[in-house]
UniProtKB/TrEMBL annotation:
The name this protein goes by in its record: Histidine ammonia-lyase
GO molecular function: histidine ammonia-lyase activity
Pfam family, one: Lyase_aromatic
Post-translation changes: Contains an active site 4-methylidene-imidazol-5-one (MIO), which is formed autocatalytically by cyclization and dehydration of residues Ala-Ser-Gly.
Record keywords, A-Z: Cytoplasm, Histidine metabolism, Lyase
The keyword Lyase is annotated on this UniProt entry: yes
Keyword Transmembrane helix (UniProt): no
């Protein structure tokens, strides 16, 4: 994959982060990086006062640093800022961080040497993965603490994973045959002053959320048939009168999925209208899909943005100190994703309740099991779904409304975007498990109906579930089943097969 700083997509991030696609810089990017570095060298020779180049950082921005001390300034910056705490970020998240930082730096507005970018490229391609603690970023002035742990390994310090083993950064670089870099003027600051940690976490979570949004329609449709739902609620005429794009998309998905079904009913055959968790599927799922489209747009802007400070404009003989490192656009998007994905889980858990509750499930056995009493069936599966939904409600409290001043009040408003991204990623994972529980309950309900009566799309969904997990005929440990189905759903290629059968959007 060629990186030019302007054309990276969420799909590209997944290819590199999750599937270890190799990367390289374009020749145009290399040329721009060299021009930018030549300009920085000229500024140093002329002893210009430039933030982070010949000054200290944060509150020390008014402290002049001589040329003799500029290298020490960069090394001290990385060591002093490596203040992360908590468990390490996952390998795929760190690979995404490395990719996004490399892509941003390849624009040639950061004033660093090409040699530094080539070192990062080699680390990514040879899978030298810095150990980056997940906590410690305020999400403004960039993700300073976590990115400093990344930069330590570039210098031959810190810790890294290589070939599945955790070891010292220098050892990992040596085993991979990569020479550590001695940072020079501006380079330490360029490595850590950016939003790449929150954006990496958010990009992977958003990709998984977009995939789950399609599964939610599929699973909701299967539940709809299990509960003998009323087809009329999906009628296009209704949704044309309220033309939100994804409300219409979801309604069409449900029509496609249930095409040919002998379980779904018409208005008045069994009842006039369904409960909201069934009837309002297009409106609720559609609203979350609208939110995800907005979030994906903001992430794709951010992954192709320069978030450094100061920014070098070599061709215009300018250096501008600004605030592109501030994570507010991503912080708000991550809080939005937390809410949108919590709603998928919320409405799914309500459908689970309808499936297992004998007062609501259209004469299905209580808790979807024969010999109720001796067998508990899916009773506690609903508990697990409810627990995850309640956890999501706590996690969905917005991080972006919080701020705390730092650096002696020089940096007096921060985004908390990285906290927001980590919370959103956890909510996405929780939502996968809630919907996995719903799929298992819906499939179990269909076993008590007749799988041959399903629609074209829902039949595929049912059969895919049963390929991985058998019907529950007597009580067993369900936790493993939940994980199996959630992992199956997380493979974004699985739904491609269904899309070849129906027009799933």
């Amino acid at each position: 994959m060629k990186l030019d700083g302007v054309s990276l997509t969420l799909r590209d991030v997944i290819k590199v982060a999750r599937h270890k696609c190799q990367v390289e810089l374009t020749e145009a990017s290399k040329a721009q990086v060299i021009r930018s570095r030549d300009y920085v060298n000229k500024l140093l020779q002329d002893k210009k006062v430039v933030y982070g180049l010949t000054t200290g950082f944060g509150k020390f921005s008014d402290t002049y640093i001589s040329n003799d001390d500029t290298k020490a300034l960069q090394v001290n910056l990385i060591r002093s800022h490596a203040c992360g705490v908590g468990a390490p970020l996952s390998e795929e998240v760190v690979r995404a961080i490395m990719l996004l930082r490399l892509n941003a730096l390849s624009r040639g507005n950061s004033g660093i040497r090409l040699e530094l970018l080539e070192t990062i490229t080699a680390m990514l391609n040879q899978n030298v993965i810095p150990v980056i603690p997940e906590k410690g970023s305020l999400g403004a002035s960039g993700d300073l603490a976590p990115l400093s742990h990344f930069a330590l390994v570039i210098m031959g310090e810190g810790e890294a994973y290589y070939e599945g083993k955790r070891m010292g950064g220098l050892e990992a670089m040596t085993l991979a045959g990569i020479k550590p870099i001695a940072l020079e003027a501006k380079e330490g600051l360029a490595l850590i002053n950016g939003t790449q940690v929150m954006t990496a976490i958010g990009s992977i979570a958003c990709w998984d959320a977009l995939n789950l949004s399609k599964w939610a329609d599929c699973i909701g449709a299967l539940t709809y048939e299990a509960l003998l739902g009323v087809r009329d609620a999906f009628d296009p005429e209704t949704h044309e009168l309220r033309p939100h794009k994804y409300q219409q998309v979801v309604a069409n998905n449900l029509i496609q999925l249930t095409q040919g079904s002998k379980l779904i009913t018409r208005q008045g055959e069994v009842r006039v209208q369904d409960a909201y968790s069934l009837r309002c599927l297009p409106q609720v799922h559609g609203a979350s899909r609208d939110a995800l489209a907005y979030i994906a747009e903001k992430l794709e802007i951010e992954i192709n943005s320069v978030t450094d400070n100061p920014i070098i404009f070599a061709d215009k003989d300018r250096v501008i100190s600004g605030g592109n490192f501030h994570g507010q656009p991503i912080a708000l998007s991550m809080d939005f994703m937390s809410i949108a994905m919590s709603e998928y889980a919320n409405i799914s858990e309500r459908r689970v309740e309808r499936l297992v509750n004998p007062q609501l499930n259209e004469k299905l056995p209580a808790f979807l099991v024969k010999d109720g009493g001796v067998q508990s069936g899916f009773m506690i599966a609903q508990y697990a779904a409810a627990a995850l939904v309640s956890e999501n409600k706590s996690l969905a409290h917005p991080a972006s409304v919080d701020s705390i001043p730092s650096s002696a009040n020089q940096e007096d408003h921060v985004s908390m975007g990285t906290i927001g991204a980590r919370k959103a990623a956890q909510i996405v994972d929780n939502a996968y498990h809630v919907l996995a529980i719903e799929l298992l309950c819906a499939a179990q309900a269909i076993d008590f109906r007749d799988p041959s009566l399903l629609g074209i799309g829902t039949s595929w969904v049912y059969n895919r579930c049963r390929q991985h997990v058998a019907q529950v005929t007597e009580d067993r440990v369900l936790s493993t089943d939940f994980a199996t189905i959630a992992n199956m759903m997380k493979d974004s290629n699985v739904l491609n097969e269904l899309s070849s059968i129906i027009n799933l959007q």
